[in-house]
Amino acid sequence: MNFDELFSLKGKTALVTGAAYGIGFAIAEALAAAGADIAFCCRSKEHLKKALDGYAADGISARGFICDVTDEAQVAKMLEEIGSVDILVNNAGIIKRIPMTDMSAAEFKEVIDTDLTAPFIVSKAVIPGMIERGGGKIINICSMMSELGRETVSAYASAKGGLKMLTKNIASEYGKYNIQCNGIGPGYIATPQTAPLREPLPDGSRHPFDSFIISKTPAGRWGTPEDLYGAAVFLASKASDFVNGQILYVDGGILAYIGRQPD
Ligand code: NAP
Ligand code: GCO
């Protein structure tokens, strides 16, 4: 057994959607460190430029594209420019924290379009090429909300629960072509998406949600994007060739824990 070969991504092209910063950026760093060539996309030109500078500072020559993954035509154009994709990470995502009865159907749909329909759009576009080349890896970035609900995140939880099932369905439908489709379910990770939940209150005290998450997490802390390095490389590499349709929760133990008893 050659350990390096098991995890090596040399000669592979990885597309990470929404990898200008946050979790996507860290996953792209990890895949690059394992040898993959990186392509990524985001919507904003400013984010794209900053990200390219960030990758260059890491010594990674990533190819960056402006592409809104909810738009099939933009996705097709980007994929034409990239060429073949061996590893797809459906990471781009948004959240809207609005009580369900105050949320408009348009707001609900925008979250579903980004967090569920876009992974469908990008996956269906890369799968035929993967079949032609004898296989591929698809990693969908799921969530605690693939399993749990909470106030204000009805659209997000619906999308991430759906993404878990899209993952299992891609595995079921295309596993025979040596395509492995798995999910990573990050716990609460410190990124711009969760920044409003960690902002200190005007009196300088800790945001109640911040304290709540720390008490709910056996690890006793928020995760960092770097906590996802290992799971991403595993699910992108040969090491996971017989793992299909699974969601690997990287959550510091949240889903295993009933919660702290009252003092
Ligand atoms: P983030 O900090 O908000 O970053 C989101 C990234 O996606 C940015 O690069 C953004 O760039 C891009 N993006 C958003 N919509 C896009 C679209 N339609 N097309 C292309 N790119 C798009 O989010 P994050 O916290 O890193 O989260 C990344 C993924 O992990 C999301 O799917 C999120 O739901 C999931 N997740 C996050 C956490 C957490 O605690 N942070 C936990 C579990 C799961 P532009 O704005 O330039 O497009
Ligand atoms: C929220 C958060 C979460 C996280 C993450 C948890 O408001 O509850 O934003 O949904 O981002 O997806 O895994």
Strand content: 5-15%
Number of helices: 8
Helix coverage percent: 40-55%
Strand tally: 7
Major sheet: order of its strands? 3-2-1-4-5-6-7
Q: Are there runs of 5+ residues with pLDDT below 50, and where?
A: none
| CATH class division | Alpha Beta
* Oligomer class: single chain
Describe this entry's structure for a reader.
The chain is of the alpha/beta class and 263 residues long. The chain has one domain (3-187, 223-250): Rossmann fold. 41% of the residues lie in helices and 14% in strands. It contains 8 helices and 7 strands, in the order αβαβαβαβαβαβααβ. It has helices at 3-7, 22-33, 45-57, 72-82, 105-133, 154-174, 208-216, 229-236; strands spanning 13-17, 37-42, 63-66, 87-90, 136-141, 179-186, 247-250. A 7-stranded parallel beta sheet has the order 3-2-1-4-5-6-7, with helices on both faces. β1, α2 (22-33) and β2 (37-42) form a beta-alpha-beta unit. α5 runs parallel beside α6. The longest helix is centred in the middle third of the chain and has 29 residues, at 105-133. The termini are far apart. The model has no long low-confidence stretch (mean pLDDT 98). It binds NADP nicotinamide-adenine-dinucleotide phosphate and D-gluconic acid. D-gluconic acid binds next to loops. Residues 17-18, 20-24, 41-44, 47, 68-70, 91-94, 114, 141, 143, 186, 188-189, 191-194 line the site of NADP nicotinamide-adenine-dinucleotide phosphate.
